[in-house]
TrEMBL record:
Coiled coil: none annotated. Keywords: Signal. It comes from the Bacteria. The keyword Transport does not apply. Pfam families: SBP_bac_8. It comes from Spongiactinospora gelatinilytica. This is ABC transporter substrate-binding protein. InterPro entries: SBP.
């Protein structure tokens, strides 16, 4: 019997993982580190995946999915953070625009700390932010304070994309930090919005990971072979608007 469960946050993923038995799990970087540290996932034998080395090295070597020279995740899809704004509004010039208004929606996700850090690099250069993923204690405190600012003035911290759609529909928000998938939802809902990518802007990649002790290892590797191949990634990218990790998925029709 095949069981497929869907979660929206890293915390939901860990709760589901503790409550059931899975052979493979699709995890973002914020969940991957904990899965590895707790021994819930194991190294992947990439020699069994014929399409693995077609995936660019910059994705294959992401720190979130590699430990001690071993590979723990097979990159699947990736996305860049986008700033969505009302089509009649002014185009934001950087991530700092997101924090200047209370009428904004920020994803309730660790990646938002990096977005805040990049905004601080633009507005508070004396803080010395260089790498938004390697912050000093002072920089981290300032980024968290920026995220919490204006929380009482209509700011939304979202986990469900429909909260963003509703916010633009009723006019309660004018800016949102989103993914290409949410932009697609907004446009399909008929909302007149535009999207801009902050320069620079953070991104994230999701990867398939192998359970430390899979009950069905052969089936698990068949799944990893299928999801790392161009056809599966092409179909997935066409469905949710994200970018495939395997460049071969960028040719042909979904």
């Amino acid at each position: 019997m095949t069981t497929l469960d869907h979660v929206r946050t890293a915390e939901e993923l860990h709760k589901a993982y503790d409550a059931a038995s899975y052979d493979v799990v699709a995890a973002g970087p914020e969940a991957a580190g904990r899965l590895i540290a707790e021994g819930k996932v194991g190294p992947v034998n990439t020699a069994l995946l014929p399409d693995y080395h077609d995936i660019p090295k910059r994705l294959r070597t992401l720190p979130a999915y590699n430990r001690g020279g071993k590979v723990y995740g097979v990159p699947y899809l990736w996305e860049a953070t986008q700033l969505v704004y009302d089509a009649e509004g002014e185009r934001p010039r950087g991530a700092d625009a997101l924090f200047k208004s209370g009428a904004a929606a920020i994803e309730d996700d660790p990646l938002s700390i990096a977005v805040a850090a990049l905004a601080l690099r633009r507005t508070e250069p004396d803080l010395g932010v260089d790498d938004p993923f390697q912050l000093t204690p002072a920089q981290l405190d300032r980024a968290l304070a920026l995220l919490a600012d204006r929380a009482d003035k209509g700011r939304i911290y979202w986990t469900d994309p429909l909260d963003v759609v509703s916010g633009f529909a009723d006019g309660s928000i004018s800016f949102a930090q989103t993914s290409p998938y949410v932009v697609s939802l907004l446009r399909r809902a008929g909302r007149p919005v535009r999207a801009a990518s902050p320069d620079p802007g953070p991104g994230r990649a999701d990867a398939w990971m192998l359970a430390a002790e899979p009950q069905h290892p052969s089936c698990a590797y068949q799944w990893l072979r299928w999801t790392s191949a161009p056809r599966a990634q092409r179909d997935a990218a066409a469905w949710n608007g994200l970018a495939p990790a395997n460049p071969g998925a960028c040719t042909g029709r979904a």
